[in-house]
Design a protein that fits this description.
Length: 128
């Protein structure tokens, strides 16, 4: 990757990327698309901030999971001069289907226990 923090505030033309490969799972929040305000969609789930172009491929082997509305990146996508998209070579990594090949502390769901939910009033520690 050619990212340089010193260029982060400069025009997109001075943020030039190079061919990059990432093998990872992305579990993150997103900004929901609403009528008239596009969030960027799955093709922009990993936000690109550089000039890529067709000659600079972004190869991604992994899985992308949208878990919740984003708490930090909350603006909608679509401003001008944010990035020039890369050639996207994306594939699901079949290693995620073999538990023996997962990295330590990989999130997992062992079982679901049905319970009761209650709304607790402010400044209280239990339901009435």
């Amino acid at each position: 990757m050619n990212w340089n923090d010193a260029n982060s505030g400069n025009a997109v033309a001075s943020r030039v990327a190079g061919p990059t490969t990432v093998n990872a799972a992305i579990l993150a929040g997103d900004v929901p698309t609403v009528p008239g305000q596009y969030s960027g969609g799955m093709e922009n789930f990993p936000r690109f901030l550089e000039t890529w172009g067709a000659a600079n491929a972004f190869t991604y082997n992994g899985a992308m999971i949208k878990m919740f509305p984003s708490l930090y990146a909350t603006n909608y996508w679509g401003k001008n001069n944010v990035y020039v998209p890369p050639a996207r070579n994306w594939a699901y990594d079949l290693n995620f289907e073999d538990p023996t090949k997962l990295p330590p502390l990989t999130p997992s769901l062992l079982r679901v226990i049905r319970g009761q939910w209650a709304t607790i009033a402010p400044n209280q520690t239990s339901a009435p």
